[in-house]
Amino acid sequence: MRHLLSTTDLDRAAAIRVLDTAAQMAATQGRQIKKLPTLRGRTVVNLFFEDSTRTRISFETAAKRLSADVINFSAKGSSVSKGESLKDTALTLQAMGADAIVIRHQASGAPHTLAHAGWTEAAVVNAGDGMHQHPTQALLDAFTIRRHLTGTATNPDGVGHDLAGLHVAVVGDVLHSRVARSNVDLLHTLGAEVTLVAPPTLLPVGVGPWPAAVSYRLDDVLAQGPDAVMMLRVQRERMSTAGGGFFPSPLEYTRLYGLDARRLATLPDHSIVLHPGPMNRGLEISADAADSPRAVIVEQVANGVAVRMAVLYLLLSGDGDTPGAAPATGA
Ligand code: CP
């Protein structure tokens, strides 16, 4: 693996390898081994052109726990605000010796351009590009689902398992969601059955070829007893008011597609609820659903650190093409 730009970069074996490596990383954290020497002397740049809380902080935490040097770059307050291009920004980071660039950008495809335009030698990790992909989010979601739904007392993280036989409902603003796209691809690769649930206005045109079923009726899908329900954030900032804005209205949306205590009670006992965050409490998810024991939303954030440690390790440790390689552990 040279870069991680999309979950479509990962076949089943590669995806399981990332998840299994993340399980090893999580185990070191569980043993209170906060710092591994693995990436000592390497430099990871967090290049964020869009706001982020979870992704930016967890990549920073992950890199530091692997002993890498970390440079945080935010477009706000940088020369990007004076009009500097992505190319010149990348050339500047290359001159400073970046080994990995973690990029979030509002333009779909920006990480791909950065990886392939010849402006940098660094490994590029997509931390979310426009409405396109957010691969590490999908990996941490898969890690969380696998842990809860395939883990056993002797193998709590479900190491070695895929997600075959599981049914995941992905609910809400699919149209604007890079999380949904990444998840549909990865869940399919790992053998899960996926149902997208959304009003027709919040589904992309041409969703047909996606490897997922589609429903407009949340209650019908919940009645099928999905193993995991992934609620999506309604992305009002990406909606064009010129195009009619948000339809159905927020009240109607909550009535038809919001997850609340009543809907939660219809799920099988083992079902879990995910949300990538940030949440619009009271819109796509009620406070009692978000805070219920079924919700694994805070755990997703914690798992994000282990998954990002795994991704940085596999990209930078030099054995990224060797299936089954184990991360070095240490003090
Ligand atoms: N899930 C996610 O990408 O959250 P942030 O925007 O806070 O990084």
UniProtKB/TrEMBL annotation:
It comes from Cellulomonas pakistanensis. It holds the Pfam family OTCace_N. GO terms for biological process: 'de novo' pyrimidine nucleobase biosynthetic process; 'de novo' UMP biosynthetic process; amino acid metabolic process. GO terms for cellular component: cytosol. It catalyses: carbamoyl phosphate + L-aspartate = N-carbamoyl-L-aspartate + phosphate + H(+). Heterododecamer (2C3:3R2) of six catalytic PyrB chains organized as two trimers (C3), and six regulatory PyrI chains organized as three dimers (R2). The keyword Transferase applies. The keyword Nucleotide-binding does not apply. Residues 2-146 form the Aspartate/ornithine carbamoyltransferase carbamoyl-P binding domain. Pathway: Pyrimidine metabolism; UMP biosynthesis via de novo pathway; (S)-dihydroorotate from bicarbonate: step 2/3. It comes from the Bacteria. Catalyzes the condensation of carbamoyl phosphate and aspartate to form carbamoyl aspartate and inorganic phosphate, the committed step in the de novo pyrimidine nucleotide biosynthesis pathway. This is Aspartate carbamoyltransferase.
